[in-house]
């Protein structure tokens, strides 16, 4: 039963082939037996999950079942869950139990989904390998000596290991797509403002966006239909009705214009990864699509701009963790300054501290124009690159990550090498565009991801484009487990 | 050497919105600690701000009242610093693109002169909470408490240009701001509860000098009287230093009202770097032309317009009109008295005279006045119809103030009705003439031109005999007849 996709589970539950309690119990058992190998969960909420599953079964029996009724999922531990510890992968919030649910959690609950627990992540979503988590790195189910990618490594690994058919995740610079690529899962980062950020612990507010990771595009469409939607509590929300993202999945892609940016195939891209992506593009040609070479000339500025803007916002967003009201507080503070310094010194890990320092520096008097303002200018140029590209093409494709999963510990000492993991994903966050990663083959039995970038609010189209590929290929069905 | 004081004020006005600037929590003053603070105010992880439209409306109304440009687009920024009563570790405020741009108002001084004060800008921002350092917990010496009820309450910070040249001008400006915000109903303006707070930038320079001197910032001077005193004492301090050949340190200073002195608040004056940047959780707010025009047409009558109308409609002097329109409650009180009594001039005199003195003496506001507008109108009516003399009227006023009832009740109870009965007065006149042989003799021998003045003695005696109740006009007429008959 653990191999079932969300679409299959929805069907099975409605056809009474199995109950929600049955599949929930089986997955909980599987988590208990196997997650020791992957470390993909921080908190498992077995009791609550079985209660929710029981309630879902009753609704199914009464014929009053919402879209995802009884479907087991997991939430990245960045989403606040009422009464359940929400750590954000940090010692700082190791003791934090929110009294409210994130909008994403509420929405999935309304849709009837059953939450099995909270998945591991890089601390405060800062990382590309899940090694910055206070709870230890997530191990890639394809090779447990390798990283799962990050920051949503727990959600990606849990799906890849078939501990759960789908999970929520967030993406600030690639945190959904890169781990999806490294674990052979399908992940979608929606248009900025598509999914409410209420209750999602903020890393970089102008870039953060929640989305699903699942085993295929169809399942992502199911999850996104439940997750997205208007929310007045988030002023940056686009206040758009979600609609049904599964509606267009089967549309033909005959005549689709695919932009292939030359900058995404340059230096730094692993040759085998490049080959798998080229194979995927050829497959699309077979499906009737047309490849158009395009240029996104400011691509090389995306990583530097991002590593000014994201840390700048983070430096302010993380100021609230001061040991005063909740979260970690140092023992026996001598005075206020000591309380601040030791609580934050002890509560935050190295990467978080590095980014707070970088962000604080970038916003400081005398540097603001050179860094923050300049980065905002670059951001506008990057956005313009995409806007111009989308005048010529329907979607843009390229690699998700420059290489397959690397060894745990391999890039820990070299932050810049780690930052370059997101070289192909970061620009879409800066532009606010939707992006997906889907499996397109393996290199030495390690998965490779194809990235599809869509125009604003064009999630239905990129899901359709991904789904058509997955109808024609089986890469997404390959399993590590 | 002749010195000139240069003052600019930063006034924080708490807006009387029902909920906070970015959350739905209430804003009532004096609630038990932390009962008006929600997850947003506590800066719980994942919570987000949602701007309060009412706060924008209030701020825009203020801008219109200040004849200022209204920012068509306003942007919130984060001002970063750590403090326990600042839950997010930054204050959400406005800097580069505030809601209210440059403007100008006129202030009126006691010598009847006026002066223009330019507004640099006014911006919307959230208030911080409060740190309580004394007696917070029964046990726990040296513990501090945090009350976040006030955290997130909307404020407008109103920044003037350094256009004021004396403490009196600063007070007049502050009173004008107070009038405007209370007229608009956007704040209760209560300085004692911190609804209106004032910081003053003060510098001095030699008269005729073009450059501004080094300024100090006086923090939290929270009454009109303290603004006056603090500016005076700080200017004196600066002048003393400069005359002794010293120089002024640019710093923040605290006014100590007990000692009537200012003292340095921060030992090391390192310039704080607040690392402002646009708040990514809030989109720029755009106000369109229609919105502003609708607001403009819905604006209430403001102090200057009301004063002009009072001069015109009630024929008041400029001074009276200004005095009576400074506070909306006073203006409304006046109009009630004027209309009910039909005597606007008398109403103005009584309000700027007896009533003002009473309120001053009791240290109460006009809303708390024991003499209501109806009381005063009734009193004036009795004065006008000759039931009482103006001298008795003062007595009646005091009795009303003491809670003895309205004018008619007091007059009745105390038997203060003016005696105009000719027979009774004639009797009193006869008695006084009979008992004043010497004065009558002098009157008869006096020169014609001196006689009217000499009548004063007799009038005084008769008033005394009547306990002040005899109608002076009737006395005069009868007395003159009787005395002239003796010539």
From TrEMBL, chain A:
Its EC number is 6.3.5.7. The keyword Ligase applies. It is an enzyme of class 6 (ligase). Keywords: ATP-binding, Ligase, Nucleotide-binding, Protein biosynthesis. Pfam families: Amidase. The active site is at 76 (charge relay system), 151 (charge relay system), 175 (acyl-ester intermediate). It catalyses: L-glutamyl-tRNA(Gln) + L-glutamine + ATP + H2O = L-glutaminyl-tRNA(Gln) + L-glutamate + ADP + phosphate + H(+). Residues 22-463 form the Amidase domain. Allows the formation of correctly charged Gln-tRNA(Gln) through the transamidation of misacylated Glu-tRNA(Gln) in organisms which lack glutaminyl-tRNA synthetase. The reaction takes place in the presence of glutamine and ATP through an activated gamma-phospho-Glu-tRNA(Gln). Heterotrimer of A, B and C subunits. PANTHER family: GLUTAMYL-TRNA(GLN) AMIDOTRANSFERASE SUBUNIT A, TRANSAMIDASE. Belongs to the amidase family. GatA subfamily. This is Glutamyl-tRNA(Gln) amidotransferase subunit A. It comes from Microbulbifer halophilus.
From TrEMBL, chain B:
SMART domains: GatB_Yqey. It is an enzyme of class 6 (ligase). Its EC number is 6.3.5.-. Belongs to the GatB/GatE family. GatB subfamily. Residues 332-483 form the Asn/Gln amidotransferase domain. Heterotrimer of A, B and C subunits. Allows the formation of correctly charged Asn-tRNA(Asn) or Gln-tRNA(Gln) through the transamidation of misacylated Asp-tRNA(Asn) or Glu-tRNA(Gln) in organisms which lack either or both of asparaginyl-tRNA or glutaminyl-tRNA synthetases. The reaction takes place in the presence of glutamine and ATP through an activated phospho-Asp-tRNA(Asn) or phospho-Glu-tRNA(Gln). This is Aspartyl/glutamyl-tRNA(Asn/Gln) amidotransferase subunit B. Keywords: ATP-binding, Ligase, Nucleotide-binding, Protein biosynthesis. It catalyses: L-aspartyl-tRNA(Asn) + L-glutamine + ATP + H2O = L-asparaginyl-tRNA(Asn) + L-glutamate + ADP + phosphate + 2 H(+); L-glutamyl-tRNA(Gln) + L-glutamine + ATP + H2O = L-glutaminyl-tRNA(Gln) + L-glutamate + ADP + phosphate + H(+). InterPro entries: Asn/Gln-tRNA_amidoTrfase_suB/E, Asn/Gln-tRNA_Trfase_suB/E_cat, Asn/Gln_amidotransferase, Asn/Gln_tRNA_amidoTrase-B-like, GatB, GatB_C_1, GatB_Yqey_C_2, Gln-tRNA_amidoTrfase_suB_CS. The keyword Heme does not apply. It comes from the Bacteria. Signal peptide: none annotated. HAMAP family: GatB. The gene is gatB.
């Amino acid at each position: 039963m653990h191999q079932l996709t969300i679409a299959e589970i929805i069907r099975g539950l409605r056809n009474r082939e199995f109950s929600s309690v049955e599949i929930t119990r089986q997955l909980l058992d599987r988590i208990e037996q196997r997650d020791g190998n992957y470390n993909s969960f921080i908190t498992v909420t077995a009791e609550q999950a079985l209660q929710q599953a029981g309630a879902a079964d009753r609704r199914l029996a009464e014929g009053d079942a919402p879209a995802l009724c009884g479907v087991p999922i997991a939430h990245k531990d960045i989403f606040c869950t009422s009464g359940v510890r929400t750590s954000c992968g940090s010692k700082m919030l190791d003791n934090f139990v929110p009294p409210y649910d994130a909008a994403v959690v509420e929405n999935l609950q309304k849709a009837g989904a059953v939450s099995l627990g909270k998945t591991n992540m890089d601390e405060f979503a800062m990382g590309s390998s899940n090694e910055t988590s206070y709870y230890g790195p997530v191990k890639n189910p394809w090779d447990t000596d390798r990283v799962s990618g990050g920051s949503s490594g727990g959600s990606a690994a849990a799906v890849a290991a078939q501990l759960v058919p789908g999970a929520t995740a967030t993406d600030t610079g690639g945190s959904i797509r890169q781990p999806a690529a490294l674990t052979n899962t399908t992940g979608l980062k929606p248009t900025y403002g598509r999914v409410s950020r209420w209750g999602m612990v903020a890393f970089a507010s102008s870039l953060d966006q929640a989305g699903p990771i699942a085993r295929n595009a169809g399942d992502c469409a199911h999850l996104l239909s439940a997750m997205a939607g208007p929310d007045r509590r988030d002023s940056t929300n686009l206040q758009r009705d979600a609609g049904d993202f599964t509606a267009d999945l089967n549309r033909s892609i005959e005549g689709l214009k695919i932009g292939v940016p030359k900058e995404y195939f340059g230096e730094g891209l692993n040759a085998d990864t490049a080959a798998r992506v080229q194979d995927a593009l050829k497959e699309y040609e077979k499906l009737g699509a047309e490849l158009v070479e395009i240029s996104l000339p400011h691509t090389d500025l995306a990583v530097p701009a991002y590593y000014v803007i994201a840390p700048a916002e983070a430096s302010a967003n993380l100021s609230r963790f001061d040991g005063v009201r909740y979260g970690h507080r140092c023992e026996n503070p001598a005075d206020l300054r000591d309380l601040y310094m030791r609580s934050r010194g002890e509560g935050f890990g190295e990467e978080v501290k590095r980014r707070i320092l970088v962000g604080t520096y970038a916003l400081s008097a005398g540097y603001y124009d050179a860094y923050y303002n300049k980065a905002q200018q670059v951001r506008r140029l990057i956005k313009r690159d995409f806007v111009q590209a989308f005048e010529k093409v329907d979607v843009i494709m390229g690699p998700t990550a420059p290489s397959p999963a690397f060894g745990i510990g391999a890039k820990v000492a070299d932050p810049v090498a780690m930052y370059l993991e997101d070289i192909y994903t970061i620009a879409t966050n800066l532009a606010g565009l939707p992006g997906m990663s889907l499996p397109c083959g393996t290199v030495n039995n390690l998965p490779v991801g194809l990235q599809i970038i869509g125009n604003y609010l064009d999630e239905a189209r990129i899901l359709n484009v991904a789904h058509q590929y997955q109808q024609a290929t089986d890469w997404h069905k390959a399993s590590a487990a | 050497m002749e010195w000139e004081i240069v003052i600019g004020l930063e006034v924080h006005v708490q807006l009387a919105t029902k909920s906070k600037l970015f959350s739905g929590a209430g804003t009532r003053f004096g609630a038990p600690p932390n009962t008006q603070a929600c997850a947003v105010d506590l800066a719980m992880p994942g919570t987000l701000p949602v701007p309060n439209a009412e706060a924008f409306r209030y701020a825009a109304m203020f801008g219109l009242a200040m004849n200022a440009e209204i920012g068509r687009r306003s942007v919130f920024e984060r001002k970063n610093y750590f403090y326990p009563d600042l839950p997010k570790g930054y204050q959400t405020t406005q800097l580069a693109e505030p809601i209210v741009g440059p403007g100008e108002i006129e202030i009126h001084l006691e010598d009847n002169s006026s002066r223009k004060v330019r507004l640099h800008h006014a911006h919307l921002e959230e208030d911080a909470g409060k740190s309580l350092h004394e007696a917070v917990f029964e046990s726990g010496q040296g513990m501090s408490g945090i009350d976040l009820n006030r955290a997130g309450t909307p404020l407008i910070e109103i920044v003037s240009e350094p256009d004021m040249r004396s403490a009196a001008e600063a007070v007049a400006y502050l009173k004008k701001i107070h009038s405007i915000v209370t007229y608009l109903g956007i704040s209760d303006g209560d300085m004692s509860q911190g609804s209106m707070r004032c910081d003053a930038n003060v510098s001095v320079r030699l008269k005729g000098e073009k450059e501004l001197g080094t300024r100090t910032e006086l923090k939290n001077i929270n009454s009109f009287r303290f603004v006056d005193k603090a500016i005076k004492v700080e200017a004196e301090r600066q002048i003393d230093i400069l005359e002794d050949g010293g120089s002024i340190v640019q710093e923040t200073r605290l006014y100590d009202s007990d000692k009537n002195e200012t003292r340095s608040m921060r030992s090391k004056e390192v310039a704080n770097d607040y690392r402002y940047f646009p708040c990514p959780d809030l989109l720029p707010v755009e106000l369109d032309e229609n919105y502003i025009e609708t607001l403009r047409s819905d604006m209430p009558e403001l102090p200057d317009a009301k004063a002009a109308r009072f001069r015109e409609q009630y024929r008041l002097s400029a001074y009276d009109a200004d005095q009576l329109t400074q506070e909306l409650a006073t203006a409304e009180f006046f109009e009630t008295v004027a209309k009910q009594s039909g005597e606007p001039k008398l109403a103005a005199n009584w309000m700027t005279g007896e009533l003002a003195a009473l309120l001053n003496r009791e240290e109460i506001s006009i809303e708390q006045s024991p003499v209501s507008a109806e009381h005063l109108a009734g009193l004036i009516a009795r004065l006008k119809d000759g039931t009482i003399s103006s001298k008795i009227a003062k007595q009646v006023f005091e009795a009303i103030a003491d809670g003895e009832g309205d004018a008619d009740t007091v007059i009745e109870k105390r038997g203060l009705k003016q005696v105009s009965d000719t027979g009774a007065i004639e009797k009193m006149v006869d008695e006084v003439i009979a008992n004043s042989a010497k004065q009558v003799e002098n009157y008869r021998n006096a020169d014609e031109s001196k006689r009217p003045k000499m009548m004063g003695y007799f009038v005084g005696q008769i008033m005394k005999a009547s306990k002040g109740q005899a109608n002076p006009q009737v006395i005069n007429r009868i007395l003159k007849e009787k005395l002239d008959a003796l010539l």
